[in-house]
Design a protein that fits this description.
The protein has a five-stranded mixed sheet. The protein is α+β, with helices and mostly antiparallel strands. The radius of gyration is 13 Å and the shape is flat. It has one domain: S16 Ribosomal Protein, Chain: A (2-Layer Sandwich), CATH 3.30.1320.10. A hairpin with a 6-residue loop joins strand 3 and strand 4. The termini are far apart.
Length: 88
């Protein structure tokens, strides 16, 4: 089963994340199928960059986003509609 998850990158105490598609049982920072975006919570406001076409493709093909990724997808969709580029 596939999942859309966050993969941690960045320095100690300065996290940034990749939004990736991977097997549900794989390790957090293990191998992944595709990188579909980034999330940087240390910016003010938080910075979200998602390829929404690829997100829709993977969800249509059975990938399930985690709770946090679902929230990011919703925020990114709202920002796309209003022309903003970050989470408020």
């Amino acid at each position: 089963m596939l999942a859309i998850k966050l993969m941690r990158t960045g320095a100690k105490k300065r996290p940034s994340y990749r939004v990736v598609v991977k097997e549900k049982q794989s390790k957090r920072d293990g191998a992944y199928l595709e990188n579909i975006g980034t999330y940087n919570p240390t910016r003010e406001p938080a910075e979200i960059n998602l390829d929404m076409d690829r997100v829709r493709y993977w969800i249509a093909n059975g990938a399930q986003p985690t709770g946090t990724v679902s929230r990011l997808i919703k925020a990114s969709g709202k920002n796309e509609a209003t022309g903003e580029s970050a989470l408020a």
